[in-house]
Each structure stands twice: as C-alpha cells, then as structure tokens.
Design brief:
Two copies of one chain form a homodimer.
Chain A lengths: L1 H14 L17 H9 L8 E2 L1 H8 L3 H14 L2 E4 L2 E4 L1 H7 L3 H20 L2 E8 L2 E8 L14 E3 L4 H13 L3 H5 L10 H14 L2 E4 L6 E10 L2 E11 L6 H17 L16
Chain A binds a DNA duplex (30 and 30 nucleotides) through helix 3 and helix 4.
Pfam families (chains A, B): HTH_IclR, IclR_C
Keywords (chains A, B): DNA-binding, Transcription, Transcription regulation
Organism (chains A, B): Geodermatophilus ruber
Chain lengths: 280, 280
DNA sequence: CGCTCGGTTCCAGTGGCCGGAACGGTGGGG
DNA sequence: CCCCACCGTTCCGGCCACTGGAACCGAGCG
C-alpha cells in the first residue's frame, strides 16, 4: 500500500498540469474573471479536497485580494463551500458534472461492470481519452487487491496505462496523429516512440492492451476499448497482481463486458466522441 | 417503465428550480459574469444533457449575445463542449465535481453498497440532504426492478423519499428546525405537517424511514441514515416492489451496510456535514 | 416571397473587476 | 518579550472587459 501511494505521489507530481503560470502570454486568452474562477476551481484535486485560503491563492497563482473576491463569489454560487477547516468543492459542482456525457456513459456501464466485478474479483477501471491523458470515469475497487494509481475524476498519461494504450491504438488506427501523442514526457520510460508505436499496432490487432508493472510495481492491467458506432468512446480494464500471470482468464469476460456496454450505448450518447471542437 | 418515466417527468417539472427569473431583485446579488456562467451551466440537467444555443439562452434567461459570449468562454475553459448537435457539459466539470466531499463519500461507500446490492438484488440509493431536498450521490440499479425517479446528481424533495425522511428525522432530532422543511409544496400530498412530524419521530425511534408508493405507484423504499461522528451525513435506501411486502428481510442487511460505511468514513471527511455556511 | 426562428457579429458606453497596499490576528522562535 | 512571517480581510481609484440592443445571415416554411 505504501508502495502504491508512494509511486502515485511521484506520478501525480508529474501529472499535475504545469504550475499555473500567470496567464497565457499570447493575446488570445481572455483573462476574464471566469478564467480566474476556473483557476481557483482547478486548485482542488481528488487528493487535495480541502484547501485553506492561502493554499488556493498559491495554487491558482492569483493575487490575494482577487482570490478572496473570486472565492466569495464561488461560495455565493454554491460552487465552493467554506467550512471551518477551509474551502471545498461544493455539491453544486457535483450536480453540474453529473450532467456530462461521461456520467451518462458511467451510468450505463455500471451494471455490466458490477457483474464483471463479481466474476473477476479484481479492480476495474472505466476511462476516456482526453488529449494525451486518460481520465478515469469509474473505478470498482476490490478489497485486498493491488492498489492502483487511478482516481475517479483524475487523469494519468495515456501511454502509462492499459486503458490509455487501448484507446491510443484505436485513435491511431483512425488518424495517424500518433506523433503528437508519442512525444512523451522527457526522459520518462517508454520514451522509445518506435517500440511504442509497434506495441499500439499489436494492441489494436489482438484487440486488447496490457500494462505490466509500467506504472506501479507488482501491478498488471489488461484493457479493451468500448466501441460504439464504429469508434472507441472509452476503455475498460482489469487490474491484477503481476505475479498472478498474464490474466488470460480475465480476457474473455472483459471483452464480453465491453461489448455489452458498447451495445447498450444509445446512439445519441455516441456523440460523446473524442472530437470536441477545441476553439481558436 | 413508461409509468416510471412518466411519473418522473411529472415530478421533475415540480422539482426543477423556479424558471430562472432575470436576476435577484434585491441589491445583494452580484450580477457578475460568474453568476451568468452558472445560469448557463444550470440550464443543463441529467435528463437534458444536450442543449442547442437557443435552448440555453431560453433556459438561462440571458440575452442572446450574452449567452453566446458566455458559452464561448465556457467552451474555451473546457467547462462546456460544442458538438454538432449542440452544447454539453464538458469533462472538466466532471473532474471538478469529482473533488467534492460527496464523491469521496461515494468512493468509500461503494464497495459496501456493491456487497449489499449482491445480497438484496434491489436498487440502492445513496443521498445527502441539501436544504429541503435530497441530492442523489449514487444509485445501483437492478435489472427488471421497479424504476425509481432518483437520478445521480439530481435532487428530489426530501419529504417525498425514504432517504429524505431518514435524514430529516435525524436533523430534526438535532435542531427542531422542522417547521422550515415541513412547509411542503402547495396542495401536494403529505401536506399534513402534524402527521409528517409524527412519522419523522417514529422513523427516528425505530432507526429507519419508509416510503410506500408515495412518489411512484408500486414502489416502496426503506432507508437508514449513515452516521459518522454522531451526526447523519447521508442516507442509504433499498427500493423494492410495494407488492413484495414491507421489506423486513432487507432491513438488517441495510442497517449493517450503513453502519459499516459510517465506520469507515475517515474523521476528516466528516466535515462534509450539512452545516455549510450559507453566506448572507 | 415574407415571415419566423436559430445563430453570429458588431459596437459604444459604463460599471464591475483589478490588485497593490494597508490592517488585524496569530503563532513561534530567538 | 519583541519581532517577524504568515494568514485572512478590507479598501479604493483607475481602467478595461463586460454589456446587450441591434443589425445581419441563412434556413425552413406556408
């Protein structure tokens, strides 16, 4: 456990976005109060759920008085709650986030995931691709299983994870835009683009991706894409102790579950594709 | 199924907050752009996940050009995504919402809920109290079970639901502020405050609350509070067909599960109490 | 063709945002 | 004890980003 969380701490220090530089230097970005508000909201993370005023000011990079004003506004909106021990993300943000397409996906996937969870008795992950990262939508933990670094709502570099590889493999098959993604972080392992590209090709061919102790020692994952309407919208993975073998037994149930989820996705929801118009 | 959704439509039309009057008339409310942004975000709901531009403008009550500008900003922030079919809540809002204390609670409760779900084979609800309403944090559906009006992220009047009654009973035991809550909606059933107060007292005494077809015909629920550090922070309920009896068999497993969840809540999280400072 | 409705762009005026600065309170360490 | 570092709050003049009515374009439609 300490090993897992230790590794996770190391990872998250790299995962977390660049330390909130003042604003965008280019003229394009509007330094509106809305941007500041999201800087404040972005100060919170699943492993730092409660922050003091000063912590928010530091993390958001905003002047104290501005931070104070923005926080007061957010509290008034119900987006943030002020307790005696500090500020927290408010229930209102949960309610807003619950309207996202990803929650709809989670809702549909959950029964099937539960069933798989009963069978596999291992930790399950449901994640979507977001640029170079995967964002975890759901996680079904299993008692006394290998701890995994995934946290619901948080993201990890896609090329570190089985779900990420499964999704990258599909994406690359559609548009050969892999170069962008393969530009991996400096000096980090799996920095060999050619080998990684080959692994993606293999993953795509056999229909599943693997991660053997690449993110956490002792942890292995196999992942399959969830396809709906011809393209992958998410990925599902099982985590198990690396010492337990290659997990072939889990592959078929995993595939069946992913297929079942893909089939039960309403066509309207398939518009949750990765293709969102990134403005400018 | 059609019965359930029909009834839900009827309910949600009452549940949804007053149709977004212009702004607050009193001088206290700041009509800042942030307020407008949340008006826009509040236009979405779990059953209206995708809205066209005009729908957002109408629902938020903002002028067209203002709506346009605010939407563009929100898209730039990643809070909203623009697809060909309209606007949706963005993944970023899910990520922000995942930092709320309620998601932490959900995270801890989920394993125990899954286990109960296996045993009971009925739909489970996890909800918190928010003023006069309950907000659903988690819902484990069961195939071919009675459909329930609860939607994760959405709210229902507390006095219509078993979870709500369980929480109101606890709250009333702490502070006799029941009058506020008992002022129920005009002409709606269970408008008899005295009888309702008595029911709450009974619920508190026996440790669980019930709902027999009060919200949906054919649906019954029993709910127990989840207590941590001496006060109720959430409630857990099982839904079952009213024709199946009173659900006594489910009561003990339900109690055990709620107790187990309450026990496993870290003390730090208990600051998720209902007492948030509602400014001004 | 004229109408309605969805969606976008423009623009001048102004009021809301800006953030440095100053102020109280607290703790702790020399 | 004093001093300092830090947290949190408040104030205020200047300026610019927000405001929203209005005009515009295209599509559907009777």
């Amino acid at each position: 456990m300490s090993l897992g969380s230790e590794l996770f701490a190391e990872m998250s220090s790299l995962v977390v976005e660049a330390p909130h530089q003042p604003v965008d230097v280019r003229a394009g970005a509007a330094p509106s109060i809305l941007k500041k508000a999201f800087d404040v909201l972005g100060s919170f993370s699943p492993d730092r759920r409660v922050l003091s005023f000063a912590e928010v000011a530091r993390a958001s990079g905003l002047p104290k008085s501005t931070t104070h004003r923005v926080l007061a506004m957010l509290v008034e909106m119900g987006a943030v709650e002020q307790h005696t021990d500090g500020y927290r993300i408010g229930l209102r943000m949960f309610a807003v986030g619950a309207c996202s397409a990803e929650v709809a996906l989670r809702d549909i996937a959950l029964p099937a995931m539960e069933e798989l969870h009963r069978i596999a008795r291992q930790t399950l992950h449901l994640a979507v691709l977001r640029g170079p990262d995967v964002v975890y939508i759901e996680k079904l933990r299993t008692h006394q299983a290998v701890p995994t670094p995934a946290v619901v709502g948080a993201s990890l570099p896609a090329h570190w994870t089985a779900v990420g590889k499964a999704l990258l493999a599909e994406e690359r098959a559609e548009s050969a835009a892999s170069t962008e993604v393969l530009r991996s972080r400096a000096g980090r392992k799996m920095a060999d683009p050619a080998a990684f590209a080959q692994e993606l090709t293999l993953s795509r061919a056999r229909g599943y991706a693997v991660d053997r102790e690449e993110s956490v020692a002792g942890l292995a994952c196999i992942a399959v894409p969830i396809v709906a309407g011809g393209s992958a919208v998410a990925a599902l993975s099982v985590a198990f102790p690396a010492a337990a073998g290659k997990g072939e037994v889990l592959l078929n149930p995993l595939r069946a579950t992913a297929a079942r989820i893909g089939r039960s996705l309403p066509p309207a929801l398939r518009g949750s594709l990765l293709r969102e118009r990134h403005a400018r």
